[in-house]
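This entry is retained here.
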Amino acid sequence: MNLIGSLRISVTPDCNLKCIYCHKEGYRETVSRERFTPDEIARIANIATGIGVRKIKITGGEPLLRKDIAEILRKLSELKKISVLSITTNGVFLKKFLEENPDIYLDRINVSLDTLRKEVYASIGGQDTLEEVLEGIKKAVSIGIPVEINTLVLKEKNLDEIDDIIVFANDVGCNIQFIELIETRENKEFYGDNYYPISELEKYLEKRADSLEVRRSKYDRMVYHVGNSQIVTCKAVQDPDECSGLRCKLLRITADGKLRFFMIDDDRYVFDLLGPIRRGISDEEIMEILSEAAKLSKQIRQRSTI
C-alpha cells in the first residue's frame, strides 16, 4: 500500500524561542502534556511503513529540547524501510547536540534561518542566538550532514536579505527552502504587514538561477540551482482542497498524539493516536487508524480531478 510517502512527527510543543509568526503546528495553549515515548514513536513509524511511509521528519516546537531526542533518532534510524530521516530545528542547540552525539545518523537537517542580521533575528525570535544557529549549520555541514535552510519570507523583515541568504548558503554549502507566510487566528496584523507572495519570489529566482529543474520527488516543485545551492519554495496551504493540486502525500503527528493531514488546522481531519495506544491497542488497530487517515488524504488529493 503506497498511500502516504512522508510522516511528520512533532515530539514536543516546547520551544526556547518565541517567534512572532509561529503557528505552533496547530497547538492550543491547553495542549496535553502527555508525550509519545521513543518506543511508541518508533512503533508508529514502523507500522506507518505499511501505508507507504518512507520519509520521517522530526519537528517540534524545538525537538532538541527533548532529553531523549537522541534515543528517538537512533530508534528511527534502525527502521529498515525508512529511506529519509530528517529533523527540523531552530539550530540554537544544534552544534552542542551534534558534538555530544557523534554517532547520530540523519539524512538531512532543516534549520530555521530568517535573517543574517542580529537585531532582526532578536526581533523575530525574542533573543539574539543568531551566532549559535550559524555555528550549528556549519558544524552539521562539516561532518557531512546535508543542511537545508528554512527561510520564511517576510516583507518587512527580510525581503531585502534574499540575496545575502543565498550567498551564505553557497559559502557554507547548504540548500534553501523559501517559505510563504501562513495566516493564523493569532497573526492577522503581522500577516497583513509581512505577507509576500511566494509566486513573486519565484519570478526573481527564475532570473537569478543558473539552471532550473522540476523535482518529481518534491511534489513536482521547481528547483532553482544557484551556484552550489539548490533552492525550493513552499507555498502556504490552509485549505485541504489546495493539496489536491500539490499532490502532497504527507501526514503529521502532533506532540499530544493527534494524527492530522498535512498542515491543515481543521478538526474535521484529526485522528487520536495517543489515547488508543495508551489503552493498549494492537499494531493492526494502529494500522487501521493510519490507513483511514491515508485514504482520506487520497480523497482530498483527488478532488481536483472530479
Summary: The chain has a mean pLDDT of 89. Residues 1-89+240-306 form one domain. The radius of gyration is 19 Å. Residues 258 and 272 are 5 Å apart (CA to CA).
